[in-house]
Known about the structure:
- By secondary structure, the chain is of the alpha/beta class.
- The chain has eight helices and five strands, in the order αβαβαβαβαβααα.
- It starts with a helix and ends in a 6-residue tail after the last helix.
- α4 packs parallel to α5 (91-100), α6 packs across α8 and α7 (164-178) packs across α8 (182-196).
- Helix content is 62%, strand content 12%.
- Strands 2-1-3-4-5 form a five-stranded parallel β-sheet, sandwiched between helices.
Amino acid sequence: MSEAEITLSILIIDENRLRAAVIEDGLRDAGYTKLTIVHDVAGIARRIADLSPDVIVIDLENPNRDVLESMFQLSRVVKRPIAMFVDRSDQAAIEAAVEAGVSAYVVDGLKRERVKPILDMAISRFNAFARMSRELEEARSQLESRKLVDRAKGILMKTRGLPEAEAYALLRKTAMNQNRKISEIAESLITAAGLLAPPEDT
Length: 202
C-alpha cells in the first residue's frame, strides 16, 4: 500500500454506531488512521466543507427515498469519491446513485473485510470519471478555440484582403509577440471588430 493511501482522510457518515464501527475497523485493519465518524446527518454538507475529507463513506441502514435523495444531492456537490452502503435498494435508486456520481453503491454488502476493496474501487472509479470529464472539457475548449480562430481569420481575410494562411500566420505572430494564446488574440479581434462594425439599422 502506498503512503498516499495511508494518509487519505476519510469521513464515515453513519447514524448506526455498530455499523460505523464495522467500517472503521475495516479501514483501520487496512492501515487508514485519518478517520472521522459522523453519526448525525443534519447539517452534513457544512461538516464536509469544514472537514474537507479525501473520501466519504456513507452507510444507510434502511434509507427511505428522501434520505437517499438528500445523499445523492450531496454526492453531486462534493466532487469526491463516495462509497455508499445500503441494506436494500431498487433499480431506480441504483440508477439515481450512478447519475449522482456515487463511485461505489453497495447493496447488502457491509462486511469488515470488504470495506477496503470497495474504498479502492470508489477512488479508482472517481479518478477515471474525473479524468474523462477533464478530457471532455479540454476537447470542448479546443473546439471553442478553433471556432474563435476561424472567425478571426475570416475577419482578417475580409478587412485586410489576406489569404487564409497569412491571416492565421498574423494571428499566431501577434499571439507570440504578446505571449498570449492564439484563441485570446482571436477573441480580442472579434470583440474589436464587433465594436467597430457600423450600427445595424433598427
